[in-house]
Amino acid sequence: MINDALAPSNTLLNPQAIKELFNSGGASLLKGLSHMADDLLHNNGLPSQTTKDAFEVGRTVAATPGAVVFRNEMFELIQYRPMSEKQFSRPVLIVPPQINKYYIFDLSPANSFVQYALKNGLSTFIISWRNPDIRHREWGLSSYVEAAEQAMNICRAISGAREVNLVGACAGGLTIAALLGHLQVKRQTRRVASATYMVSLLDSQIDSPATLFIDEQALEAAKRRSYQRGVLEGSEMSRVFSWMRPNDLIWTYWINNYLLGKSPPPFDILYWNNDTTRL
């Protein structure tokens, strides 16, 4: 990580930056300084990976037709409109991560898993978790497991199917794993036909890039700070994820935004990644 930070390409010695400086008559440097000042004020000092107007939720991302069929204090359940003449009888329930918004599964049309599923005849439901505040500080994994079970039962009731296919991503995968354990104890696992896990770390004893930033002392400090505030801010989690892939998520944009004076190119996944929620 230190070697990446000290790379000559991250300084004004970068040949591309020097060329842009001369070609623009110094304008690239002024724009870069402006971008840096804005990021210091509004982006925790990290280079922006996207612009706020790159996409619009409900128009250019998260735009697949659907309706909220259930709502309570903790989540909304969205059912999408079919896109095929025939549909499988068994529905799919997507459980997205609680640390980001649901539309990672429904980005721009070319990158929408939801549209892919619908066009292939899958009746698709997705949970949209509430963005919590200090009033919800007592919510824990058991609360999310209970909510996922409730959503699953609603899917079964609406579709008339006995079984549901579960899809969980990141912390959503951890949630459905815990849900399956809960159903096993109740001898009700037959309500689930399949479970698919996407980038879900189920064994925390396995080393991962995240362990570079976490030890027992740091974890306990984070717990205390989160409990005092009532929530963990999404921007704090986003910083950790960025430093797990610094070349792709930090230094690439350092060069583009500051040294070349350009705006970051539109990228729906990074727009979603920066549209954070609290936990």
Automatic annotation (TrEMBL):
SUPFAM superfamilies on file: alpha/beta-Hydrolases
InterPro entries xref list: AB_hydrolase_fold (IPR029058), PHA/PHB_synthase (IPR051321), PhaC_N (IPR010941)
Gene Ontology MF terms in the entry: acyltransferase activity
Poly-beta-hydroxybutyrate polymerase N-terminal domain residues: 2-117
One GO process term, biological-process aspect: poly-hydroxybutyrate biosynthetic process
Pfam families: PhaC_N
Superkingdom in the source lineage: Bacteria
Alphabetical keyword list: Acyltransferase, Transferase
Protein name according to UniProt: Poly polymerase
Taxonomic source organism: Pseudomonas syringae pv. maculicola
